Hints:
Blueprint: H1 23-31, H2 35-43, H3 45-48, E1 49-50, E2 53-54, H4 56-66, E3 70-72, H5 73-80, H6 84-102, E4 106-109, E5 112-115, H7 118-151, H8 162-179
Antiparallel strand pairs: 1-2, 3-5, 4-5
Amino acid sequence: MFDFSEFCGGSAARPVEFLGLTEEATSQLLNQEFGLSKLLLEKYPDVFKRGGSPNSLGKCLILFESLGRRCDYDTIADMLEVSRDTVYENMRLVRNHVNDAFGLKIEHSGSQVYLVNNQTLAQKAERLQGHLSKVDNAMRNLKADVDSIRRSGQTPVLPGTAGALLAGYEQAKQLEASQNL
């Protein structure tokens, strides 16, 4: 493919970098309806604007914020009168840029896209708990095997990261027991 960069001054957009805001400053931005959008449009007009107006990335971010930072891809697509695939790709880039600039995670699940918060964290932890019960059972079995080998006078040999996992598991169980007192 022909490289046109020498005719247009090279790469048009610089990479979005961490802005170094404090937690308090980031919290204040999140308390504003369009806090993230306004700052990114100001700091990175080459990424989020075309001419003097927001480009497709900027529009997606603005609409995402106007919808409470939790919405469907289809809702943004309908508002912009573009395809869901276009919004999905734009929001993938927005998610990366917001993470790069602020260290904030925008995730998606199915057609939902949302800013991670305590509610979404609790939901994710609840789903994880279901998986952890299987891991807990496997770790109890592994610990019992290690204890049995020790009682027989041998030194247990755990390949890979299994030893570190078992040690971490034992520490977690001790911490959990001390918190339940």
